[in-house]
Specification:
The complex is a heterotrimer of chains A (about 550), B (about 600) and C (about 475).
Chain A lengths: L17 H15 L8 H30 L8 H8 L8 E8 L5 H18 L5 E7 L7 E9 L7 E4 L5 E6 L13 H27 L12 H13 L6 E9 L7 E2 L1 H16 L4 E9 L11 E3 L4 E5 L22 E8 L8 E4 L13 E4 L3 E5 L4 H6 L1 E2 L1 H18 L10 H33 L7 H22 L3 H19 L12 H39 L1
Parallel strand pairs in A: 1-2, 1-3, 3-5, 6-8, 6-11, 7-15, 10-12, 11-14
Antiparallel strand pairs in A: 4-5, 9-10, 13-14
Helix pairs in contact in A: 2-13, 3-10, 4-5, 5-10, 7-9, 10-11, 10-12, 11-12
Chain B lengths: L1 H10 L5 H12 L8 E10 L2 E13 H5 L2 E2 L4 H9 L2 E11 L3 H4 L13 E9 L3 H19 L11 E2 L18 E8 L6 H9 L15 H4 L4 E12 L6 E14 H4 L42 E2 H5 L20 E3 L7 E5 L4 E5 L2 E5 L6 E5 L16 E7 L5 E10 L5 E9 L3 E14 L3 H4 L7 H4 E7 L8 E9 L3 E11 L15 E3 L3 E4 L9 E4 L3 E3 L9 H24 L12 H24 L1
Helix pairs in contact in B: 4-6
Chain C lengths: L1 H31 L19 H12 L14 H12 L9 H35 L4 H5 L5 H11 L1 H8 L4 H17 L2 H14 L7 H10 L6 H14 L6 H5 L9 H25 L5 H14 L11 H7 L2 H25 L4 H15 L5 H11 L12 H25 L4 H37 L1 H7 L1
The chains are: A alpha/beta (about 550), B alpha+beta (about 600), C mainly alpha (about 475).
Family (chain C): Belongs to the PIGU family.
Subcellular location (chain C): Endoplasmic reticulum membrane
InterPro entries (chain C): PIG-U
Chain lengths: ~550, ~600, ~475
């Protein structure tokens, strides 16, 4: 019915009347006007409205949704303090060791005098400020006290003697009362003796801590260089010790290549030997103990003991010990639940191979020096138990036979936990020293983990940082601060607890599963996904907007002109 | 209860008394003082094949478990169970199919076998179901590490909580509250040697002595049917006071004798040389020796254990102690009239009982059993299975289908049983189309008198939990009752949905495996254990998208949508101007319009004339 | 003119009714075919939302005291469930299953046709009236205008899509009924009816919610007319031209209702709230023990908006979301559904004087972009298209579109068969037809809108210059 189609067939049959008029009119119109007539105002307005509405919807609805649905969640981390800790500037650990001077049999003023003199002597001896001893009198004794010095005046002793108690944190000093300094004395041999003793007691630990601090980042150069053999000792301890964990599973395994012995009185033996040690160690970590019997367990075939007729014994070269553990066949899987497993293997050789000894690899040692046990660094310890045929026949290993192995196991356990050798006389002191070194190393490790996490998340902008990770980072920082504060007041138990927490939380944050989600979706792929949709949509929108804007500006100008 | 079991034995030719004693007693919690470790092998020749049932059971008291002093009870497993608060565990590695027609009733009444692939169920302790479920996940993950199996793929979409299909075997497991039963299957899993190695590690003798010395991965997983089971359940030790855990490890397998006696160096089957071939002498053309009409090999050929298992049986495991209530470490139940010879390097004890001979093997001395050939086995007929089930998929195509399972009750007594079906979520069943038809499998004469029971008579009870997309598997449990000597057909339709392309398995065009249906036959007498039958697993061919397409699809689709948007937008903001208003150039357009109009005019004319 | 039309209609009536009855009989015959010719299993007909099979499963679940939404089976409305559910289990001996449901659908189709016809007549009267106002009364007389109502009704009834959807046991006839009901009510100015239809349509299948704009416009302005400004200018010119001429002829002319009647709108909104409360209460009662309304919304509307079921249909979204990377899923879900919203406002601005046509455009767009489209939706907008047979007389590419629809509806089953049943093709084959179908719908929308705008322009051209001619 369109008028501008007078000639079209559809209008043909019924196309008279207005249709004709139309066509005529059109011809005139065509003749008359070449360019389109001016557009009416309403249509212009409606077009502006349309463009505006499109733009509004897209900008108010589309873009926010796009942003919201396609951004990975990154909760913000306290990068500042994380780097701060990593650089080691957040806290410089100090170890003020409180030593109580107990002198019940000495008049107060003299003991006070003695204390002052000894303290002065100590300060002169001490070269390393971060780790120093503070002498106090018995009134200030607290649970933070590291060592108690008992002054026992005896007439017998000419020169003072010092005895370190093996099972208590106390140092007994016997001396002649005549040695007590007079109120006017400026120096006293007794005071300097006490100072020397204390200094030597903690010398080893101090050196260790000095070394650790020196090797940590952002540290001021160490006060005095350490002797190479001491460094070797530290290195050796480090390689042997297991990674620290709040719980350890001790697994005792009896391995025999034959069916017997398939019984051992391990409960009793563990109860008498291992449990006390574990109880003492419980302040550092918690321990679980499990035992198992594995008959028909033969050491790996690559190990070949040689028979020595002269001594009618079998000998195993120490070099071969590394291959001794038959990991493929022996069920030594680590225990379930968190915590490291320490394996203690008791190997009873087959009757035809008894006795089985280990020859030290260096030829200088004579074959007669028979090793039984060896330590597997960061894994456990093994012991070859040669039973007399009489014991073998019963098929049961008595608790008495188990004593030797378990003792060696316990020493190896201490080594595996990284317990310092010095002062070897007193276990409590060694434990306390271990606590301090552990605290320091935990502080360092968790700080470095934080730094690594910060660097990782900043280098990968597409990685997501979930809330739990951020939470555990915050937890780490807070407990790090607490640990540092605890160190300052010399509360080492608390410090260790906090440092442990910090380490666990830092690990949790770093190994959060949901962080490795979208790392491998490169941006050019995103372009490939977005462009086909957003390109064709955006272009006409923008063009129309520009056009309308121009028109608007133009008519504004026109208005001004008028 | 002994005589009870005896009578059952009399009634049905079933393996060994001892097995049933263990089963019953453990079920009733009346376990008497048992040795920490015992092992047992039961051999039974089947036509052309040999059924070997290995069983190893070790016990540990709760006290020793709490102190974690392990002797023969595997430390790793007990730690896992303790960690996951699991009271009772059943784990199955099965491959192959049990051939009821020629082998008859299933060993141990099917109580120690699983569906194809891996099947496990456990009773897990937990205050709430969600707590128990998280523990179940922990259990599954650690077990997958222990057995080198992909058990960790048992997630919420493969886990169901059956109501009636399983019952705890352990002592007083039923009574205790807040225990939750979880059941998971991996029908796709291929059981193989790496699953056997950890299994052997758990044995005290580690395959170096005792009956386990026969176990060889190549033979086991080459068997026509094998089922490897681990069952841990709490038991009562000695008196009423002491409790403990008992672990039963069992391997049942049916070895094809001819196949497994092939030499290792050339395992390819070849025709027998002329002289070894058994010829039918009656055929007239056999008189010239060069031709032969072969008759099939005798059903019970002559073989020794070493030939079949390819290993020596190295005596008893010395760790089983003699206070054991079954001093027999190996039992042989020869087919009727078959003679058995013992070749032993040491002294052995023998005890005869109904239809079977049991031996106490010497320690550290080889032991071998030779089964003599039995040609005339006419009288051999395998014991009838309690139920026969076969499940198939009806219909074709990748979108919809029907599931049809035929259950036959060959015995002449009615059977009550529970039918458990677990379907993956992408298989959407229409349970309202569930239909049951019962037909008689009797001869014509009696069929006249047969009255087909109504659906209500067949389906006594029904529990259905529909699946949820990507969250939960559909789980159907039916309590059915079948009249004697009838055939029950269950059918229902289902739809297969298309998954996201990341949800398909690596070889999507192979299809998806559906776990076998589990049938628990309820005992007719209360003190009996219930026996199990499982159908074969199904392979579903589901529609899959083109995995090479993601970018193409994204680009094409979004281009089309964007173009639609753009054109509508242009249309709306464009200014409409008549052709005549603009200068020449509209002409062509006009002509085209004319054409179109002409065509439409014609069409219109046609329409009018109609 | 009225008289003429009447007589002309009389002439038409028997012809029309014959065809209606014939279509009904044709449907019944198809229903009696075994298994409905497997139409119920066609992906083009029965989507997860409209399939009666799933509804039956949902009803079964409900009967066995489970939530009908337990499991990802049924996603429709609980009211429909309680309406059709009982019919699905009724079996009559010797008659095909689901006979009752099929009958319900046939009746729904017939009613749809009737409603379309009635609203078509209303539209046409309005059209003729406005032409008269524009002084173009010659046009209707000379070229007799086809009664678009009858055409549309017959197009709807005989559209293969409609027949297939009706026979193929999909609930889309009922959904269409709700939509058409609301449009009809709006056309006639019956606010309660319009409100009821709109609420029901929204409840059954979420997408008709956008129809509230055309419904309100219809109620406000009345049925479609040429742009309002024409009338002003026309009258202005007339009055301006010949003041000498007495005004009777102007006065006796019926007045054009170019005032927006708020009263009806208020009514409509009132009734809308009333009906929606009513529906919500009913739903709440029926799903009380199954997790309440929130669960219901999650299972129905949530299921529609987050495309979970990826079983193939004639839309493009199933394949898209089967292939898209999970990272972009939400983004595209929102974009594809937002696309509908983007177009609403501008279209309303441009076509506000033709609300019924606007409704048609909305339905077409939403049936192109909805998550589980079926041919039932196409059937609806194709039927409505017939209402504008006069206005869209010179639409471009109409022949091409015609062929395109035929081609797609022939090819899509073939490709589906190749992929699903034969296994010789793969998903891309079927997806290609879906793409083609989407393109066709886009072209249809664009062309129809542009044709309608052209038509308005022509009316303007016709109405104004003629006077100038008269002057000279």
């Amino acid at each position: 019915m369109s008028p501008d189609r007078g000639d079209s067939p559809s209008a043909g049959p019924k196309g008279f009347g207005p249709a004709h008029i139309d066509s005529k009119k059109i011809v005139e119109a065509v003749k008359a006007t070449r360019d389109p007539p001016p557009e009416s105002q309403e249509s212009i307005d409606s077009r502006r409205w349309i463009v505006l509405s499109f733009l509004l919807i897209v900008s108010l609805l589309g873009l926010p949704l796009w942003w919201k649905t396609t951004t990975v969640y990154r909760s913000d981390l306290p990068y500042q303090s994380m780097y701060h800790w990593d650089a080691g500037n957040a806290c410089d650990p100090v170890f003020p060791l409180q030593v109580v001077l107990e002198s019940p049999h000495v008049p107060v003023d003299q003991s006070q005098k003695l204390l002052n003199l000894a303290q002065r002597a100590l300060d002169e001896l001490n070269a390393f400020s971060a780790h120093h001893l503070r002498l106090v009198d018995s009134t200030q004794k607290s649970e933070n006290t590291v060592l108690t010095v008992q002054l026992l005046p005896t007439d017998a002793a000419a020169s003072p003697t010092a005895v370190l108690q093996p099972h208590a944190t106390s140092l007994d000093i016997a001396f002649a009362p005549s040695l007590l300094p007079s109120s006017s004395a400026t120096s006293s041999s007794l005071a300097s003796f006490i100072a020397d003793e204390l200094h030597n007691t903690f010398l080893h630990e101090q050196a260790t801590i000095a070394h650790m601090i020196a090797s940590s980042p952002g540290s001021h150069p160490s006060s005095k260089p350490l002797s190479p053999e001491f460094l070797a000792l530290l290195e050796d301890r480090k390689t042997r010790a297991m990674k620290y964990s709040p719980t350890y599973h001790l697994t005792f395994t009896l391995l025999t290549p034959t069916a017997s012995p398939a019984n051992w009185e391990i409960e009793a033996a563990v109860h008498s030997i291992i449990n006390p040690l574990v109880r003492a160690l419980s302040s550092v970590s918690t321990f679980t103990i499990d035992t198992q019997v594995q008959p028909y367990a033969i050491f790996s075939s690559s190990v070949h003991p040689v028979h020595n007729e002269a001594q009618s014994a079998w000998f195993l070269d120490q070099a071969e010990l590394g291959a001794f553990i038959n990991a493929a066949e022996w069920p030594l899987s680590p225990s379930i639940g968190e915590g490291n497993t320490i394996n203690f293997l008791l190997y009873v050789p087959a009757p035809e191979q008894t006795p089985l000894y280990i020859v030290p690899s260096d030829a200088t040692a004579d074959a007669s020096s028979q090793l039984h046990s060896w330590l597997l660094p960061q894994w456990g310890s093994a012991y070859i138990l040669n039973l007399p045929p009489s014991a073998l026949s019963t098929g049961t290993i008595s608790a008495k036979d188990l004593e030797a192995p378990l003792l060696s196991f316990s020493t190896h356990l201490l080594a595996l936990l990284g317990l310092p050798e010095e002062p070897h006389k007193s276990l409590p002191l060694r434990l306390a020293s271990l606590r301090r070194t552990l605290t320091l190393s935990l502080l360092h490790s968790s700080a470095s983990t934080l730094g690594a996490l910060a660097r990782l998340t900043q280098s990968l902008p597409s990685i997501s940082i979930p809330k739990p990770a951020a939470a555990s980072v915050a937890h780490t920082l807070s407990s790090l601060d607490q640990a540092c504060a605890a160190l300052k007041i010399g509360d080492f138990k608390e410090a260790l607890v906090k440092a442990r927490e910090a380490d666990i939380e830092a690990e949790r944050a770093f190994f959060d599963k949901s962080m490795v989600g979208q790392v491998y979706f490169p941006d050019e792929h995103k372009v490939a996904v977005y462009l086909p949709l957003l390109g064709p949509v955006a272009v006409p929108l923008i063009l129309a907007f520009v056009k309308e804007a121009k028109a608007g500006v133009a008519c504004l100008k026109a208005l001004k002109g008028v | 209860m002994r005589c009870g079991s005896g009578s059952r034995l009399g009634a049905t030719m079933l393996p060994s008394v001892a097995l049933f004693l263990t089963l019953f007693s453990s079920l009733l919690g009346l376990t008497t003082a048992r040795s920490p470790y015992s092992e047992h092998l039961h051999l039974q020749p089947l036509p052309h094949s040999l059924l070997a049932q290995f069983e190893f059971s070790s016990t540990a008291s709760d006290t020793s478990l709490e102190e974690q002093n392990f002797r023969f009870f595997p430390r790793s497993l007990s730690q896992i169970l303790h960690h996951a608060h699991t009271k009772e565990l059943h784990l199955r590695f099965t491959s192959g199919r049990w051939d009821e027609e020629s082998w008859g009733r299933r060993p141990r009444n099917g109580a120690r076998e699983g569906g194809t692939g891996i099947e496990m169920w456990a009773w897990v302790d937990g205050e709430t179901e969600s707590v128990a479920y998280t523990r179940w996940l922990a259990l599954v993950n650690s077990l997958s590490g222990l057995f080198c199996a992909s058990l960790n793929y048992i997630d919420s979409t493969r886990t169901t909580m059956p109501i009636a299909a399983f019952e705890p075997e352990g002592y007083s497991v039923n009574g205790t509250h807040n225990l939750h039963l979880f059941h998971g299957t991996l029908p796709r899993e291929v059981v193989c040697t790496e699953n056997l190695t950890p299994f052997m590690k758990m044995l005290p003798c580690k395959g170096k002595a005792g009956v386990s010395s026969l176990l060889d991965g190549h033979k086991i997983f080459d068997a026509a049917w094998q089922s490897m089971a681990i069952d841990v359940r709490p038991v009562q030790l000695g008196g009423s006071s002491a409790r403990g855990l008992q672990m039963e490890q069992s391997i049942d397998m049916v070895l094809d004798i001819e196949r497994s006696m092939r030499p290792k160096d050339d395992p390819i089957p070849r025709p027998y040389p002329q002289d070894q071939m058994l010829c039918d002498k009656d055929k007239w053309y056999n008189q010239y020796g060069d031709s032969c009409y072969p008759v099939e090999q005798p059903p019970f050929p002559d073989f020794t254990l070493e030939q079949v298992f390819g290993r020596k049986l190295k005596g008893t495991c010395p760790l089983i102690d003699d206070a054991n209530d079954k001093p027999t470490s190996i039992c042989v139940a020869p087919a009727g009239g078959q003679t058995v010879e013992i070749k032993s390097a040491g002294a052995y004890k023998e005890t005869k009982s109904s239809g079977q001979r049991c031996f106490r093997m010497p320690i550290d001395a080889d032991f071998d059993v030779e089964f003599m050939e039995l040609i005339t086995a006419a009288d051999y007929s395998p014991p009838l299975p309690k139920l026969r089930v076969e499940r198939t998929i009806s219909g074709y195509g990748q979108q919809r289908g029907g599931l049809k399972s035929v259950i036959v009750n060959p015995l002449d007594e009615p059977v009550d049983f529970v039918y458990l079906e677990t379907l993956p979520w992408f298989m959407k069943p229409f349970i309202h189309t569930l239909q049951t038809t019962v037909s008689s499998s009797l001869s014509q004469g009696e069929v006249q008198t047969f009255r087909a029971p109504t659906r209500e008579e067949v389906i006594n009870d029904m529990h259905y939990q529909p699946g949820i997309d990507r969250q939960r598997a559909a789980h159907l449990e039916l309590k059915l009752r079948m009249p004697p000597q009838t055939k029950l057909t269950l059918t229902y339709d289902f739809e297969k949905s298309v998954l996201r392309y990341t949800e398909y398995p690596p070889d999507a065009n192979r299809g998806f495996d559906v776990a076998p249906a589990v049938i628990r036959i309820l005992p007719s007498k209360p003190d009996e254990p219930s026996s199990y039958v499982r159908s074969t697993s199904l392979l579903i061919y589901a529609a899959s998208p083109d995995f090479s397409m993601p970018y193409n699809v994204i680009i094409l689709t979004s281009t089309v949508i964007a173009l639609g948007f753009g054109s509508v937008f242009n249309l709306l903001v464009r200014r409409l101007v008549g052709a005549h208003e603009t200068g020449p150039g509209g002409g062509i357009k006009e002509r085209i319009r004319g054409r179109i109009a002409a065509i439409r005019a014609k069409l219109g004319a046609k329409k009018k004339t109609q | 003119m009225e008289a003429k039309e009447q007589s002309w209609k009389k002439k038409k009536q028997p012809w029309f009714w014959h065809w209606v009855i014939a279509s009904a009989i044709f449907r019944l015959i198809l229903i009696y075919f075994p298994k409905n010719l497997n139409l119920a299993s066609r992906p083009e007909v029965s989507t997860p939302l409209t399939s009666l099979r799933r509804l039956a499963e949902g009803y079964w679940l409900k009967q066995s005291s489970m939530s009908p939404y337990a499991g990802s089976m049924y996603h429709g409305s609980p009211l429909l469930l309680s309406l059709l559910g009982p019919l699905t289990v009724q079996r009559i001996e010797g008659l095909p299953d689901h006979l009752l449901c099929s009958l319900v659908f046939v009746i729904a189709d017939i009613i749809n046709a009737m409603l379309i016809r009635a609203s078509g007549q209303k539209l046409q009267m309005a059209y003729g009236q406005s032409l008269k106002l524009l002084g173009l009364f010659e046009l209707p007389e000379k070229s007799e205008i086809i009664t678009s109502g009858d055409i549309a009704a017959l197009v709807y009834l005989w559209n293969p899509f409609t027949i297939v959807a009706c026979v193929g046991l999909s609930t889309s006839p009922v959904e269409n009924l709700a939509i058409i009901l609301s449009l009809y009510g709006a056309c006639k100015g019956l606010a309660p009816l319009a409100a009821f239809g709109w609420v029901m349509a929204t409840h059954l299948s979420l997408y008709p919610v956008i129809l509230i704009i055309p419904v309100i416009l219809l109620l406000g302005y009345g049925p479609d007319t040429p742009p309002r400004k024409l009338f002003m200018r026309r009258r202005y010119i007339e009055v301006g031209d010949n003041p000498s001429k007495d005004r009777e002829d102007l006065m006796d002319r019926p007045e054009v209702p170019h005032v927006f009647s708020w009263r009806l709108i208020i009514h409509f909104l009132f009734w809308t709230s009333l009906w929606s409360v009513y529906v919500l209460v009913l739903c709440g009662v029926s799903v009380k023990q199954y997790g309440g309304l929130w669960e219901l919304f999650k299972r129905t509307y949530g299921f529609m908006l987050t495309v979970q079921d990826l079983s193939p249909n004639i839309g493009v979204l199933w394949y898209f979301f089967a292939e898209v990377f999970d990272f972009f899923r939400n983004f595209f879900l929102i974009v594809f559904h937002g696309n509908i919203l983007f177009m609403i406002l501008p279209l309303a601005i441009r076509l506000k004087h033709r609300p019924y046509f606007l409704a048609f455009v909305y339905i077409a767009i939403s049936s192109m972009l909805k998550s589980y489209p079926s041919v039932g939706d196409s059937a609806l907008y194709l039927g409505l298209l017939g209402l504008f047979v006069n206005e869209l007389a010179d639409m471009q590419f109409s022949f091409f579109l015609f062929c395109g629809y035929i081609g797609v509806s022939l090819l899509s089953p073939v490709m589906h068969n190749l992929w699903i049943w034969r296994g010789t093709g793969n998903a891309n084959f079927y997806f290609a037809t879906a793409m083609a179908y989407a393109c066709l719908q886009i072209i249809l929308v664009v062309e129809s809108v542009s044709a309608m705008l052209n038509h308005d322009r022509k009316l303007r051209k016709l109405s104004l210059p003629e006077l100038q001619v008269g002057k000279t």
